[in-house]
Amino acid sequence: MSLMVETAGYGSCGLASTGQTLREPAMSQSVVDFVPSSPDPAIAARYSATIEQNGLSLVGPEGESRYFNAFWLRDNCPSSFDPETREREFDIIAAPDDLRPVAAEIETDVLLIDWPDGHRSRFPLSMLAGEDALRDPAELPRRLWRGDHYPNVARFAQPSLMAERAAVGAWAEALIRDGVAVVQDMPEVAADGGDALLELAGLIGAPRPTFFGLTFEVKVHLKPINTAYTAKALPMHTDVPAEEFSPGVQFLHCLANSVDGGDSLFADGAAIAEDLRREDPDAFEILATTPALFRFEHDGFDVRARQRAIELDVSGAVSGVTFSQHMWAVQDMPQRTLDRYYPAFRRFAAMMRDPKYVMRFRLNAGECIVFDNHRILHGRAAYSASSGSRHLRGTYVDRGEVRSVYRTTRIGRPGAAEG
Q1: Is the pLDDT at 31 greater than 80, yes or no?
Q2: Which of 86, 121, 358, 388 could form a disulfide bond with 26, CB atoms 3.0-4.6 angstroms apart?
Q3: For the chain, percent of residues with pLDDT exceeding 90
């Protein structure tokens, strides 16, 4: 975990007699996380540090105690990181096996630790004292939603996103919390004559290709290689599960939609999966633990990957789903396992079709719907290809890019509102 702190008058080891200037961290923490308040000598009186066999305990004003492993403390000393690259330079592997502090004290709002080799570490108490000090600010609680969510979908104007970095941060927050947002006023061509879709995606991260290419055209193709390239109904699914690392965030820019039919269908897979957990724990368990095989095979392609239908985060909460009947391969798991798997799979799929979960709406020209491909299921009603024109253009970025954008733009950070 990279924690970059640059202290006035402080080099790779030593002490500063003045205040601190903090560099932006390389990982989850930001400048505002570890900026101490004005030095207050009374703070030192409210904290105490005790050296233990394998580390150190910090006791706070209310008697609360937080333990820190010695290797973690030495490894994350602010001086362990290069101030330019913000990457770790210190080699914890070379440290002695019996590493432990030789002395520790509180000076104003800083914990000072002396090590056997003569090095002294300085840790702002704001980095160590709070329960949430090291929490990833992008680990936001998900807002699970049902089929009536469409009026509440977050909406952003493309010109505002292009002009205001803070608006991009709010957009990223909506994608993390809700998994979906709509960008309005999308031009077909960027202001500089470039690709408007790739320009929009580039605000989040580097557009990434799949076996469909860097971008793809969702319209009727003369020789379709995908159900999306027809006018048929498209069942609820997540995209490209046949790739080992399926894309994280999908952009679908509507260029034209004048056909009869063709409504867009969206559902929160995390909400459906959590309901399945409550209603049928056994079905939930097998879908969350048993990888299934997905395959995309056509001229020049035979791509296969194993994915779990339900994805869990480190706390055990549902973070997403992977589901696609049209890329569902001939399953090679043991047939006795399929005795349990198929009923669970069928029930989960049936829930995805329940109107109480499904947003049904018309995506209009000039709108771009952006969504978490590992959480949000999407589909399409059938339409009459001869009744007009329906053309969507798509691309993807990786899921982690959204959290990166949120960390670097969220309100309260220096420069967060800059364009």
Answers
A1: no
A2: 86
A3: 75
Instruction: Pull the structure tokens for residue 250.
Output: 């999908």
As given in the structure block, the two tokens for residue 404 are: 């990166």
pTM for the full predicted model = 0.83
- Integer Cα distance of 35 and 84 in angstroms: 19
Q: And the tokens for 27?
A: 């990982």
Angle between helices 399-409 and 165-177 (to 10 degrees): 130
CB atoms within 10 A of CB 16: 14
Distance of CA 60 to the CA centre of its chain: 33
Q: What pLDDT score does 225 carry?
A: 66
26 and 86 in contact (C-beta within 8 Å)?
Answer: yes
Cβ contact 221:307 at 8 Å: no
Question: Among all chains, which residue has been given the structure tokens 């990888």?
Answer: 291
Q: Is the pLDDT of residue 411 over 50?
A: yes
Residue 61 is predicted with a pLDDT of 86
Three-class HEC string of the chain: CCCCCEECCCCCCCCCCCCEECCCCCCCCCHHHCCCCCCCHHHHHHCEEEECCCEEEEECCCCCEEEEEHHHHHHCCHHHECCCCCCECCCHHHCCCCCCCCEEEEECCEEEEECCCCCEEEEEHHHHCCCCCCCCCCCCCCCCCCCCCHHHCEEEEHHHHHHCHHHHHHHHHHHHHCCEEEEECCCCECCCCCEHHHHHHHCCCCCCCECCECCEEECCCCCCCCHHHCCCCEEEECCCCCCCCCCCEEEEEEEEECCEECCEEEEEHHHHHHHHHHHCHHHHHHHHHCCEEEEEEECCEEEEEEECCEEECCCCCEEEECCCCCCECCCCCCHHHHHHHHHHHHHHHHHHCCCCCEEEECCCCCCEEEEECCCEEEEECCEEHHHCCEEEEEEEECHHHHHHHHHHHCCCCCCCCCC
Other CB atoms within 10 A of residue 265 CB: 21
pLDDT digits (tens, 9 = 90+) for 238-252: 999 999 999 999 999
Between CA 353 and CA 350 the distance in angstroms is 5
Q: Give the C-alpha distances (Å, rounded to integers) separating 45 from 41, 102, 131, 151, 316.
A: 7, 21, 20, 53, 40
Residues 6+ apart with CB under 8 A from 58: 47, 48, 49, 65, 66, 67, 68, 111, 125, 128, 129
pLDDT in tens, 275-297: 999 999 999 999 999 999 999 99
Tokens of residue 300, six digits: 């020049």
